[in-house]
Amino acid sequence: MANEKTEEGLKRVIGVQGLALSIINGVIGAGIFALPGIVGTQLGAFSIFSYIACGIMLAALLLCYAEIGSRVTSSGGSYAYVDAAFGSLPGYIINWLYFFGWSVLGSAALLNVVADSLAGLFPVFGNHFVRGIFFLVLLGAIAWLNVLGAKQGIGFIKGITIIKLLPLLAIIIFGISKININNLHWDHTPSLKIFGSTTLILFFAFAGFETCLGVSGEFKNPKRTVPLGIMLGGMVVLIVYLLLQIVTQGILGADIAMFKTAPLAAVAEKIVGPLGATIILIVTAISCFGSVSADVMATPRSLFAVANEGLFPKLLGRVHAKFATPYLSIVLYATLIFLFAISGGFEKLANLATAAVLPVYLAVVLATVKLRIQKKNTTERSFQAPGGWLTPFIGAASVLWLFSSQENNVILSIIVFMVITCLFYFVTKLYNKRKAV
């Protein structure tokens, strides 16, 4: 079974442990370095409930992904699920939303966390011109590394994964004894609007689990691997995040607003002194840089694949003669991240990225519902999320609530983007049809 080949010519080699670890690696260690400060400033000790709300939403979405992922076993993740349920046009729109809205904007947001972290040690990184040069150098290095080959890219990411996880676990273990229980009490309940908008920003740290499902065509026994892998990974993510927020809020208390851009560094300083803060700031920069590196390695492959299907410019389907990598897709993708990284800070870009990925989640939930209804007319056995129809309802309602918490101009921008993508789809189809004739 381990070496079974799919219709795509891929080998099924990824098991439950591999998928769970991929999710933990892909989600933990990016926005969480900055978000406890942002959330704590807005909600105070009440921020714990924001994590619980995200946990409930995450569970519902994970269960929907687990159900549909056990049925649709081809590569592509969210795109493949929506395409299987609703056809090529909705799948195409979802693919664009995920690629541009989440991947590009998300990586641009993380680059700003890198600069913010280093600014705590070297104030010069607060200068916009210096940040721009810094982003250019970083992205140039990442692009060059990935043009050289996937082997070099994945080797770099493995090392960073270890570097970023160990300090987070250390903060939890050694920080619990430093908690002041009075800092975990709240004296007022925030309005629903503030709670919703803050939870939307926080959800940025939970999103991204579906990226690992892009290799769904390489899972061993998908009907078992997908449900167990993503639920195990999701549980670990939620527990680590909740404990980090409790420790951060419990140690910093009302002073958390003073450390909005680097709260975990401030906690580390309280635990082991100035050296701890320096270590966390450096690890934050390395961690976020590693997440961007992983994205630059993986996402250009989707550009390359769609270009070979004729829906993106053929140039993006070119392979380097020596290194056998989609070099033009890599360079273009890194360029897009750079342009957006210099256009805004972390909070603004994280907000936009989260808003863009929400329609993707909603489409997957609806696709789960449609395929579940179709399943009733077949004898096929596959995983079904517990909770009956309540699970997809919670998932869809959560997404709509978070989306409604966005500013009107952001919602309008997402809608306009989807309309333009739809038009581009039909123009591309018409062009390809005429070219074939």
Give the tally of structural domains. Answer: 1
Q: Sheet with the most strands?
A: none
Instruction: Let me know the average pLDDT.
Output: 78
Strand content: under 5%
N to C succession of SSEs = HHHHHHHHHHHHHHH
From the 3D structure, determine the CATH topology: Amino acid/polyamine transporter I
- CATH homologous superfamily label: Amino acid/polyamine transporter I
Count of DSSP helices?
15
CATH class: Mainly Alpha
Strand count: 0
What is the rounded Rg? 21 Å
Q: Between the first and last Cα atoms, what is the distance in angstroms?
A: 43 Å
Structural class: mainly alpha
Spans of 5+ residues with little confidence (pLDDT < 50)? 5-11
Q: How does this model look, in words?
A:
This protein has 437 residues and is an all-alpha fold. The protein has one domain: Amino acid/polyamine transporter I (Up-down Bundle), CATH 1.20.1740. It is 70% helix and 0% strand. The longest helix is centred in the middle third of the chain and has 35 residues. The radius of gyration is 21 Å and the shape is globular. The termini are far apart.
Topology at a glance:
Elements: H1 16-27, H2 35-43, H3 47-69, H4 78-86, H5 88-119, H6 128-148, H7 150-175, H8 192-202, H9 222-252, H10 263-272, H11 274-308, H12 327-341, H13 346-375, H14 390-404, H15 408-436
Helix pairs in contact: 1-9, 2-8, 3-8, 3-9, 3-13, 3-14, 4-5, 4-13, 5-11, 5-12, 5-13, 5-15, 6-7, 6-11, 6-12, 7-9, 7-11, 9-10, 10-11, 11-12, 13-14
Tags for this entry?
437 residues; mainly alpha; Amino acid/polyamine transporter I; 70% helix; globular
